[in-house]
From TrEMBL:
InterPro entries: Serpin_CS (IPR023795), Serpin_dom (IPR023796), Serpin_fam (IPR000215), Serpin_sf (IPR036186), Serpin_sf_1 (IPR042178), Serpin_sf_2 (IPR042185). One of its GO terms (molecular function) is serine-type endopeptidase inhibitor activity. The gene is LOC108043392. Residues 1-20 form the signal peptide. This is Accessory gland protein Acp76A. The lineage of its organism: Eukaryota, Metazoa, Ecdysozoa, Arthropoda, Hexapoda. GO terms for cellular component: extracellular space. Residues 25-363 form the Serpin domain. It holds the Pfam family Serpin. Belongs to the serpin family. Keywords: Protease inhibitor, Serine protease inhibitor, Signal.
Amino acid sequence: MDKPILIFIILLLLAKHFIASRFEVNLVRQLSNRNLSQNFVVSPFAIRQALVLLYLGKDTRRDYQLARALKITGRLNGKIISYFGKARFKAIKQDFTMANRIYLAPDYSTLEQLKKLSANIGVDVENMNFAENSKSEDEIKQWLNNLIDKSGLNLFANNDVSNITQMVAVQGISVSPLWKHRAISMSKMPFSIARPNRKPFVYKVQMMYTVAPFEYFNDEDVRGVMIPFSKTDIGMLVLLPRRQLSTQKVLQNLDKYLQIKLQKAEETHLLLPIFTVQETINLNDALQALGIKKIFTEDDDDSQATVAKFRQYAQLESKPNRVLMSADIGGDNDQRVVNVNKPFVFVIKDQNTIYMVGRMESIR
């Protein structure tokens, strides 16, 4: 095969994978423009599941705002359903804990159609009378708590649900990765946080250490390393900003860094902090900023009332897969060393799906 043709085919494949993740990247950009916690995590895949079900569940007239935001205009229903089936199967195989449910008022127009499709997408659909707002909120929180411990505690603000509410979409996802390359030892190592016009704040955190072949890239702005999981081709891409680049800038330009091709795996000394991050996010504003309006106003664009609520709880626990002994850690000068010793962004993904995105500004 001619080299130019081969390059063209590779570029087409890269573009296909990027387009498949465009909604996720746009959502992360919108969230990063808002007041996020220093350490946060979100599952773009889980919210996309819920929105796709709402799109496919229309009996007749489709919501083209949803189609444009989700980047599925012109896609066949069968292909959409097949994609989510494969992505969910892989996540379950990797032991992700996932909960996804849409609560709808009894008079919601497409309730029965949504119930027929729900199993294909992996999103439950339930009736809910929202008139008794506190009782409704308690029931939803209890459902989520039963699947992921304490995940429903901060799901709603006071009187978040009312008698005008028509829909509450809730996602929960918890991931504790099983690493393909198991950690060898752990040790307390320096972690440095840059501060404007001041010396960096440096303190020691618990890190796990391994040496194994890892895919990577070196960009002028960001250094990336892909840490594979054990059971599938899902992995955690760690993005380490260089110079004075902030994690917020990395999140806002995530599309740029996800398009950088990873280099062939090389033997690498990896030091990764042991950390847990969890977040409860109100997604309403970010979704509306993406052009999704109708489901929030019940097709009345002039309405100031919000009839839909989108809430998500996400948790990531990065730790060794076994009990480790503490040890001094170091890499040979002539070998690659990736030391995640400053704020970073992480993306849990495979070739086609972004399951989670987050950042760690500090390690507690």
